[in-house]
Amino acid sequence: MSLYSDKVMDHFEHPRNVGVIEDADGVGEVGNPLCGDIMKMYLKIEDDRIADVKFKTFGCGSAIATSSMATELIKGKTLDEALDLTNKAVVEALDGLPARKIHCSVLAEDAIKAALVDYYTRSGREMPESLVGFEPHED
Amino acid sequence: MKVYADNAATTYLSKTARDRLIQCLDEFNGNPNSLHSDGQRTQEVLDEAREIVAKCINAAKPNEVYFTGGGSESDNQALLSAARGLAPKGKKHLITLNIEHHAILHTMKKLEKEGFEVTYIAPQANGIVDVKDIENAIREDTALVSVMFANNEMGAIQPIPEIGALCKSKGVLFHTDAVQAAAHLPIDVQAMNIDMLSMSGHKFHGPKGVGIFYARNGIRLVNVIEGGAQERGKRAGTVNVPGISATAYALREGTENMEANMTKVRTLRDRLIEGLKDIPYSQLNGDPVKRLPGNVNWSFEGVEGESLLLHLDMYGIECSSGSACTSESLDPSHVLLGMGVPVEAAHGSLRFSLDIENTEEQIDYIIEKVHEVVAFYRNLSPYWEELLTGKREHCIPEYWNA
Which among A137, B279, B283, B338 could bridge B99 via Cys, Cβ 3.0 to 4.6 Å? Predict the structure, then answer.
């Protein structure tokens, strides 16, 4: 069996939603170059929905694939639905990841949460309880 | 285009080795330990292989050559023999480099747990150890110095004759892991004062699963594998005669053609180096001249090696990377870190290991695709964006060797 599923390879070869949103309502960046992966997520919020999402990722194949899949899973969804996205859901949507790559999916979940925290902070809206005191995982 | 550029991982079986392997499987299937005719005919094949190997490395006698299950076993055999053999004399100190293969480093760790003391010496920035550092590390109770002939990841060639002379003058055993060097660089165990040496058949177009261990007569060997009296009682297990004979034939072929092969492969290597050096914020790792003929190890800032490797694989180019994501651990290559390459640059490294089968056309294809892939992932990388905007600092200069 190859290292990655066909879905991972598809999202790695053809990453969705790559880029930057210049007038984003929320931006989140997690990871660091010493660990070998950084994810940056840009959110455009309209009517409590993720109207648009873009990402940039520095990292391995699964880091790129998990970023891409995570953006697909929240695009068009409500803020509450985006908040509920778990790394497990990203892994499942990709038909699994090798055990030592699970941290990539955690990074993707964290990047979205960090972008949402930025959105709530900037907009002055009340921070949902699940985001209060949010800290990205140690990579 | 398909380009195999991972010859440091393994090489294709040569026609010579393949033909010999099949011939031996068909014609010499006896057990060399049997006294009957089939056994003795097979014993002759084994004797011939030992003589060929001894000649290729200029061993004084064929009986100084032992066959093992691979390069790792040979490394284990060397270290365990020196340590356990000399411990009763109070020699419980070993010296090695921090950039050695894990077959050395993990065995050293095991010996540390048994009470031995190990000094790990870091090479200079070019990946080559300063012999003075070894000299300064040698003590009264030093049993062994183990320094690899040439590094598997970044190709730097160590000053083996100088280390051999030093060890001889200090009365310390000298072992070298020559897995990457055998059949690719000249080896003369007598002139270089090498006491023990490890090789692996599949790194020079032989079959997998065959290692060679050279130990100068007079060195007491401690068995790693116990059992029957094969290999002069030093390595038990029914001997893999077809694999061994094919390995010896491959070593002989590589040694006989070494000069021509080195010239050809070096030319390809230098063409690749020339072709990559215009990529900004990237660098060659390891000494540009004193390096394996086929090795090019390059770091690209702002991108991660595994994604580069996978994308190149989609283009048919097969290579390897020192990034953490391609290792079993969470850290990038211990070799690159051990010689002082910044962590960020180690994450973004690729290794191309070339061979005589590669062509100039393939090298040009690699150059073209590496440019494309590095640009693609830099465009995708927030880290690269932050380097460009000055939010983060570069860890390597704009142009290598500028």
Answer: B338
